[in-house]
Design a protein that fits this description.
Helix content of chain A: 25-40%
Largest sheet of chain A: 6 strands, antiparallel, barrel
Shape of chain A: globular
Number of helices of chain A: 3
Largest interface: A-B, 50 and 50 residues
Oligomer: heterodimer
Order of helices and strands of chain A: HHHEEEEEEEEEEEE
Radius of gyration of chain A: 25 Å
Helix content of chain B: over 70%
């Protein structure tokens, strides 16, 4: 009789403890979503354990690169031929650009002499590499090998060789975590490369009434439906908002017209392959006055 | 002692998952080795210990690569405790039972992620997300469980004898 009571007491205590812990976890999740918490202990744990991840990741990426290189030997030879041809074309373009750069330099000197100072934007690049990533099943987030000590702050912009990768959401002393552009609810303002007047906004918050599958694509809209944007147009950041000007975003794949709302939507294929990111650059966010 | 070893192995699995396994994607989804690990070992430890191991490994996974702290912690904690309760009521030596339990824990993980993280999702159609969460990911995890369950269970039983 007494042992039955004792067992029941133990069970009650256990149930209470378990439900308390569950409620505490839910509260922690809520606080974390709000974003207002002191990051001291989590960042200390991150700093301690991440070097192991970094080491393993390096071994894995070197091994996989070498193995893939051997497997794709024939393909790589063709790729080298294609790139050499592209290189020649680009060299010719660079010469043209250099010539117009001289004119630009003269204009800027003239501007300085008239005491007209454009808004200064100090670009300090921090170069780092991605050392671990989450499973990518629902959203993509990465851990980057640069932290507070290297000058990374929250909301810093992460870019790779091919384009805009995303934004930093958590910083610890030596490492920081970033979330990809596809999973960011904030807006990125863009302009079309060949005609800078065609501007618009890319945001995952837009709901487009269409049968298109936007998985892995960016959604955006143009400010004016009269803009003649065609598939294949290159989009870059326009410099309005926290993203500095000139970062490639992606290529327009489809233009969707919505006559009712007087808006023109675009389906953009991002340049960055979020499954394979290695070297990145981190830039401080533009301070929006 | 046994718990500490299990926690250390769990930490090792999480580190390998973040650095290596998440870079290999199969049909655009990635293996979730840590949930398979927690599902299997909590069938063979006491339920409080299972819950504790789940809590610690979950918090660690959130710190290392999570967006909001507590999401993985909640999933692992609940699975650890629940499977600790179930362990006396099921036939543990049957492969099918273990595979079904892994399937269920994978579904639970997808459900919690779907509810708590939907503010982060990209522009996937809901049907596609549903298919991914309820089919591709659980099936992948179950296949992984099929591969490692025997070795893992033998190891946990051997720990009992130390």
């Amino acid at each position: 009789m007494r042992s039955k009571n004792k067992n029941k007491n133990k069970l009650n205590k256990e149930v209470i403890v378990i439900s308390l812990i569950t409620i505490t976890l839910l509260v922690i999740i809520g606080i974390s979503i709000e974003g207002r918490y002191n990051n001291y202990i989590p960042s200390a744990v991150l700093d301690i354990i991440t070097p192991a991840q970094r080491g393993l990741n390096k071994v894995f990426s070197v091994t996989s690169e070498n193995v893939l290189g051997i497997i794709n030997y024939k393909k790589n030879l063709k790729e080298i031929e294609k790139l050499s041809k592209e290189n020649e074309d680009l060299k010719k373009k660079v010469i043209d650009i250099d010539l117009s750069k001289d004119e630009l330099g003269e204009l800027q000197n003239l501007r300085k002499s008239l005491n007209y100072i454009p808004e200064g934007y100090d670009q300090n690049y921090i170069s780092a590499s991605v050392i671990s990533k989450n499973d990518g099943n629902w959203y993509d987030s990465f851990t980057i090998s640069a932290g507070k000590k290297d000058g990374v702050v929250e909301d810093s912009i992460v870019i790779s060789g091919t384009g805009l990768v995303g934004k930093v959401y958590e910083v610890s002393n030596n490492y920081s975590k970033a979330i990809s552009l596809l999973n960011n609810k904030s807006a990125v303002s863009f302009e079309v490369l060949r005609k800078g007047e065609y501007t618009g906004v890319i945001s995952q918050n837009i709901s487009i009434d269409s049968n298109e599958n936007f998985t892995g694509y960016l959604k955006g809209y143009l400010f004016d439906i009269k803009y003649k944007v065609v598939p294949g147009d290159i989009l870059i950041t326009s410099g309005i908002g926290i993203y500095p000007k000139g970062i490639p975003l992606g290529e327009v794949e489809r233009v969707i017209e919505d006559k009712n709302n007087l808006l023109k939507y675009v389906k953009v294929k991002p340049y960055v392959d979020f499954k394979h990111i290695d070297k990145v650059l981190i830039i401080r966010p533009r301070i929006v006055e | 002692m046994k718990n500490i070893i299990l926690i250390l192995i769990g930490i090792f699995i999480i580190i390998i998952e973040n650095s290596i396994m998440n870079y290999i994607d199969i049909f655009n989804v990635s293996l979730n080795a840590s949930i398979v690990y927690i599902s299997i070992i909590s069938l063979f430890v006491k339920r409080n210990e299972g819950a504790l191991i789940g809590l610690i490994l979950g918090i660690l996974k959130d710190i290392l690569i999570g967006r909001f702290i507590g999401v993985n912690a909640l999933v692992f904690f609940v699975i650890g405790y629940l499977y600790g309760i179930l362990q006396d009521k099921i036939f543990k030596d049957n492969v099918t039972t273990i595979l079904i339990l892994t399937l269920f824990s994978s579904l639970f993980d997808s459900l919690v992620n779907g509810i708590l993280l939907k503010s982060l999702f990209g522009s996937e159609k809901i049907l596609f997300s549903l298919l991914k969460g309820t089919f591709f990911i659980p099936v992948l995890n179950t296949i992984f469980a099929l591969v490692i369950y025997k070795a893992l269970i033998n190891f946990v039983k051997k720990l009992d004898d130390i």
